[in-house]
Amino acid sequence: MTTHFAEVLARESASLSGVTDRAKLASWRRRVVKELMTPQSPYVLALRQSGDVPERADLLDRWCELIAEMLDRLLQSGTAGGSPCSSAQTSRADIDVQKTAVLILAALHGGSTLSQIAQDPWPLNAALDIALAPFAGAEDDSPARTGNE
Predict the structure, then answer these.
(1) Distance CA 144, CA 34 (A)
(2) pLDDT value of position 139
(3) For residue 121, what is the enclosing H or E element?
(4) Chain segment 110-136, per-residue pLDDT in tens
(5) Per the CB 3.0–4.6 Å rule, which of 24, 70, 103, 138 could disulfide with 16?
(6) Helix H or strand E encompassing 137
(7) Among 71, 15, 69, 80, which residue's Cα sits nearest to residue 43?
């Protein structure tokens, strides 16, 4: 497996396994956005549309599994759905972990592409806002998140 693919999976495995509540989810989000906004980070290199397609597909499948495991853990702990902080007011039974994991990965991939072109984190954060809505706490309106400095 390509070095940057392995590095992303190692970092994500360690990071996502520690996400047990909204605060840790927000910390993971800030870290991954920072990685995706750093031009030569392993994350950017791994998501580029070049290289070995089966290896890239394996990376995305494995990353999606890690995200799904984290989402399942949050659901089991009661961190998602039906709470006053939940933007979507979704019940836990309404959340499909596999689809939500794909949505988060799509937000990371597509949002980072748009953000890199615009040289602004706003598109990535907007995509993550939607993908993470059932799990989000209070909105983070910091300049780094909104792109308004």
Answers:
(1) 9
(2) 47
(3) none
(4) 999 999 999 999 999 999 999 999 887
(5) 70
(6) none
(7) 15
Q: Which residue has the tokens 């799990």?
A: 135
**CB-count exposure of residue 110 (10 Å: 0-12, 13-18, 19+):** middle
Assign 74 a pLDDT band (cuts: 50, 70, 90): very high
Please give the Cα distance from 5 to 59 (Å, whole number).
6
Give the list of residues 6+ apart from residue 125 with CB closer than 8 angstroms, or none: 33, 111, 145, 146, 147
Cα distance between residue 75 and residue 71, in whole Å: 6
DSSP state of 91: -
Please name the amino acid found at residue 66: L
Residue 62 scores a pLDDT above 60: yes
